[in-house]
Amino acid sequence: MDERQEWDRLVRELAEGTEMTVDTGGIGTPVTYRATSRAEVLPRERGIRISCFKGLELEEPMVLHLDPPTLAARLRDLVEDAVAAFGTRREGGLVEARALFMVHLEETVETARPGEVHLVPARGGFDSLREPPS
């Protein structure tokens, strides 16, 4: 796994958002929806500040506390759980690990309490904290 490539992929997804095309069942042409996101990499790649996530404007920006090596390690740790969850193994399970990572991140962003703006990798996903990790 190339740490830099995985980091760049995550930053791109968090900065640009996601896109989904819906087939209209033969009534007209397919429709594409885009859920925009806004994020910026912190100095020295010590994290990513997210201000809009998949179309959801955040009241306070959230900081995802990880760097390229931490992201790569997290993805490696998720492979077997992700393969079991999705029932496929593409690119050695990396495709599924990326998807599970984003599911965990989305769940944490949506369920964080006010003031819990620091997102740190934890067993089973992420923890949302009020104070940055030490």
Can you walk through the features of this model?
- With 134 residues, the chain is an alpha+beta fold.
- Helix content is 38%, strand content 29%.
- It contains three helices and seven strands; from the N terminus they run H-E-E-E-E-E-H-H-E-E.
- The protein has helices at 3-16, 68-86, 94-111; strands spanning 18-22, 31-35, 38-41, 48-53, 56-64, 118-122, 125-129.
- It has a five-stranded mixed beta sheet, covered by helices on one side. It has a two-stranded antiparallel ribbon with strand order 1-2.
- Helix 1 crosses helix 2 (68-86).
- The longest helix is centred in the middle third of the chain and has 19 residues, at 68-86.
- It is globular and about 55 Å long.
- The model has no long low-confidence stretch (mean pLDDT 88).
User: What count of helical segments does DSSP give?
Assistant: 3
What number is the mean pLDDT?
A: 88
Structural class: alpha+beta
- Biggest pleated sheet: 5 strands, mixed
β-strand amount: 25-35%
Cα separation of the termini: 28 Å
Share of helix, binned: 25-40%
Q: Note poorly predicted spans.
A: none
Give a brief description:
This protein is α+β, with helices and mostly antiparallel strands and 134 residues long. It has three helices and seven strands; from the N terminus they run αβββββααββ.
How is this fold's topology laid out?
Layout lengths: L2 H14 L1 E5 L8 E5 L2 E4 L6 E6 L2 E9 L3 H19 L7 H18 L6 E5 L2 E5 L5
Parallel strand pairs: 5-6
Antiparallel strand pairs: 1-2, 3-4, 4-5, 6-7
Helix pairs in contact: 1-2, 2-3
